[in-house]
Amino acid sequence: MSAPLSPEWIAADWGTTHLRVFAMEGSRVLAQASSPKGMASLARDEFEGALLELIADWLPVGRKTLVIACGMVGSRQGWVEAPYAAVPCPPLQASAMVEAPVSDPRLSVWIIPGLSQTMPADVMRGEETQIAGFLAGNPGFSGTLCLPGTHSKWVQIERGTVTSFSTFMTGELFALLSKSSVLRHGMADDGWDAAAFSGGVTASLARPDMLAAAFFSLRAEGLLHGLVAASARARLSGLIIGAEIAAVRQDVSGDVTLIGAPALSAHYLAALKLAGLDGRTTAGESLTLAGLGLARRVLTENQKG
Amino acid sequence: MSAPLSPEWIAADWGTTHLRVFAMEGSRVLAQASSPKGMASLARDEFEGALLELIADWLPVGRKTLVIACGMVGSRQGWVEAPYAAVPCPPLQASAMVEAPVSDPRLSVWIIPGLSQTMPADVMRGEETQIAGFLAGNPGFSGTLCLPGTHSKWVQIERGTVTSFSTFMTGELFALLSKSSVLRHGMADDGWDAAAFSGGVTASLARPDMLAAAFFSLRAEGLLHGLVAASARARLSGLIIGAEIAAVRQDVSGDVTLIGAPALSAHYLAALKLAGLDGRTTAGESLTLAGLGLARRVLTENQKG
């Protein structure tokens, strides 16, 4: 039998649909675990139990282990609300972190707040921690970040401060249209066609205002010209991502830094190139851990000071 | 007991989800009936039965009664495929109508084909009959028609010929976003806010490319500024309709003639006004009957000739 784990601290990435935890020694991952007990499936008094299910064995008796959590766990429907920090501001401020109420004496849980923007109204929860992780490795960074996903974020940074951001419902629109709209009849569940994707991006870059008509044209292309299902899927993705890039293009100077899953980031890189923009990729998951680690250091120093 | 009905002919508006039939004497409606047996719920050999359920009592023995049908009944998944007529063409051509196979000797069923456009690929089924009905009362018409709905159509007409058209997934996008996306949390099922609608239209007219970001902003407005649910619903509608009008605005000259349900047409009128365009309304349902009546006359003359 191996010795029981006794991590220095615990990192938690707690989103709408999943909870992921990491037993940490400094910035080293000793163990990890996950469950489908995301924010959306839990009542307020169920969060502590959901966390203990995964980490109880990692908690030595007789001292408190610090848990740092980010994501929807800090929303109004979450464990405890961590009110948004308003931009312009750094992505992470120790003074804005909120302690969650716990019963277990071995636990001390702190939640990272999201960011808000007043006009145009916008919010993020979770991405701010990835941004903080990126900035930890790129201090004083100025430029444009893109975090593609269900709700893609485009974020302007000036010397480490988030000055503005914009959320596009890209991934959610793609899922709704490909699975629940009239387009589903001509749409594959998977497969890819890089040329069809590029065609969609190019069409939206030229006429982003035609998006809702370009969607229906996919249906008509299937009926009239036999557009195959995998191509329809890739073209739909290209139309939506192309419209997103068309909308932000004027605000981008220099390279776009992509923070996200490798496959999706590769699609964005191809789309950026069609818009005459350069991009570079980073690893999204490791940045979340880096951001949680930074939050831990800042919080610990703050509490000592 | 009243004398049995013996209509001269029968009009059928047969869409994806509903079948509506009208017992006709010339252009006069003697009786009407409907059922939820739309195209989507029927296998090929079930169409005749679904029709007879509604009209069997209207069919005298010893002669064939002509039934003229329009809509998705003529699609590839329908009773019999009535291949699209390609624009430019008049909305209705007797030679393109297709006879459906029937067993009942009292029936003669003809289906009106839809219209197609090669580039950009587009299709319609059902709307061509409303357009034909409108043109029957406005011979030689040139201008722009708008048929708002689940799949809104913008149609350019030159002296009675449909030269081009464009379909926007307006109603379907609105339903998906308001009922199935993250926006549903802040969205009422009904209610209206005319100022919020106008705000949405104006925002999309100014930045139609920002549509996917403007959607998410509704969520953020609810979280940050307490945007109420009925206002969120109206603003979402305004955003989608505004983007539609922004996209077609450059192709419109003169008034836009709206063919649709009164409440929806009133929203479009308000949106057109914000875009600096004039519109006028017509009654959609009576135009379908007028178009079916025109098809009957043309078909009958064709068969005599």
TrEMBL record, chains A, B:
Q: Which is a GO BP term held by this UniProt record?
A: D-galactonate catabolic process
A Pfam match: DGOK
Record keywords:
Kinase, Transferase
Give one GO molecular function term: 2-dehydro-3-deoxygalactonokinase activity
Q: Which InterPro entries match?
A: DGOK, DGOK_C, DGOK_N
The name this protein goes by in its record? 2-keto-3-deoxy-galactonokinase
